[in-house]
Write a structure and sequence with these properties.
The protein is α+β, with helices and mostly antiparallel strands. It has a single domain, classed as Alpha-Beta Complex (Nucleoside Triphosphate Pyrophosphohydrolase). About 20% of the residues lie in helices and about 35% in strands. It contains 4 helices and 12 strands. The protein is globular and about 45 Å long. This is CoA pyrophosphatase. Keywords: Hydrolase, Magnesium, Manganese, Metal-binding. Its cofactor is Mn(2+); Mg(2+).
Length: about 200
C-alpha cells in the first residue's frame, strides 16, 4: 500500500452515512453542508458523519447517530445495506468507514446543530448525474484535481464528491460527462478549506 494511503499511527476512526431514499423528485441521497464557522472542513458539503465515539457500537452506530444529530434522520427509519471498505484521509488523519443505507421511513430533516451544520438537502440522483452539473475542480496552483457536482446551490467536491462518484458508478447511475471541463476552486471555498 502506498504510504499516502497507509493510515498513520493514531489515525482516528470515523464513519459517514450514504443515505438513499425515494423523494419527491425520484431517488435521492442526503447531503449536509458544514457550517462556515467550523475550524475544519468549514462550508463543505458532506455526508452526515463524524468520529466514532467510545460509546458507539462501531461505524454503523456512529453513522446513524451522526445523521440524527446533524440532520434529524430517525435511525429506526433507516435500513442499513452494508458498510464499504474503510478509506484513509491523510489530510485529516481519519480512517472513514462509509455506511450505505436506505431511507425506508423518511423523517423531517433540518440542521440539527447550527454550529456544525448550515444546511441539509435531499439531492436527486438525476441532478447528480446530469452532465450539466458535473466538472473537474483543481486548486489554482494546478494541484488536487478531482470530480465535483454543482447541485442545490452547493459545490460538492473533495472526499465527498470522489466517494459519491464511486457510489454512482457502482450503482450504474453515472452518465457520460465532459471530464475536460476543469474549474478552479472558488476563492471563498479555498479560504474556508485553508482552515484545515
Amino acid at each position: 500500500m502506498p504510504p499516502l494511503f497507509r493510515p498513520a499511527p493514531g489515525a482516528r476512526a470515523a464513519a459517514v452515512l450514504i443515505l438513499f431514499g425515494e423523494g419527491a423528485d425520484g431517488p435521492d441521497v442526503l447531503l449536509t453542508e458544514r457550517a462556515a464557522t467550523l475550524n475544519k472542513h468549514a462550508g463543505q458539503p458532506a455526508f452526515p458523519g463524524g468520529r466514532i465515539d467510545p460509546e458507539d457500537d462501531g461505524p454503523v452506530a456512529a453513522a446513524l447517530r451522526e445523521a440524527w444529530e446533524e440532520a434529524g434522520v430517525e435511525p429506526s427509519g433507516v435500513d442499513v445495506l452494508c458498510t464499504l471498505p474503510e478509506l484513509y484521509l491523510s489530510h485529516s488523519e481519519h480512517r472513514v468507514t462509509p455506511v450505505a443505507g436506505w431511507w425506508r421511513r423518511p423523517s423531517e430533516i433540518a440542521p440539527g446543530h447550527p454550529g456544525e451544520v448550515a444546511m441539509v438537502a435531499r439531492v436527486p440522483i438525476g441532478e447528480l448525474v446530469d452532465p450539466a452539473n458535473r466538472a473537474m475542480v483543481r486548486h489554482p496552483s494546478g494541484l488536487r484535481m478531482g470530480p465535483a457536482f454543482h447541485v442545490r446551490d452547493m459545490l460538492v467536491w473533495g472526499f465527498t464528491a470522489a466517494l459519491l462518484t464511486q457510489v454512482l458508478d457502482a450503482g450504474g447511475w453515472n452518465r457520460p460527462w465532459d471530464t475536460s471541463r476543469v474549474e478552479d476552486l472558488p476563492e471563498d471555498v479555498l479560504n474556508l478549506a485553508s482552515r484545515g
